[in-house]
Amino acid sequence: MMRIFAWCIGSLTAVVMVVNAAFMLASPRAWFHLPAWIRAQGSLAEDRFSTGWGAVQIRLTGAAILGLIAWVLYDLLLRR
User: Fold this and answer.
1) Could you tell me the CA-to-CA distances from 69 to 8, 50, 52, 59, 79 in Å, in that order?
2) Which of the residues 22, 29, 44, 68 has an alpha carbon 20 to 30 A from that of 77?
């Protein structure tokens, strides 16, 4: 029972991270307009991070998160 609960929480966390990272990579401006309950924004401000170098930083962070998730899934599912 505890293992099922852990897998559910892990899956939910992964889905939220993938949605955030995909929006971060595709459009930092759109990422700032996601609902607050799904966006993992922290203290980032839209006026500072939606254009220019801030947007590049957001896109790099999204790419890093997606890369990390892909690496974990590869290791979890294919390297057994």
Assistant:
1) 16, 24, 26, 15, 15
2) 22
Higher pLDDT, 67 or 34: 67
CA distance 80 to 76: 7
Task: Look up residue 8 and give its DSSP letter.
Answer: H
pLDDT, tens digit (0-9, with 9 covering 90-100), for 30-54? 888 888 777 777 777 788 888 889 8
List the domain boundaries for the chain: 2-34+46-77
Contacts of 44 (CB under 8 A, 6+ apart): 32, 58
- Answer yes or no: is pLDDT of 59 > 70: yes
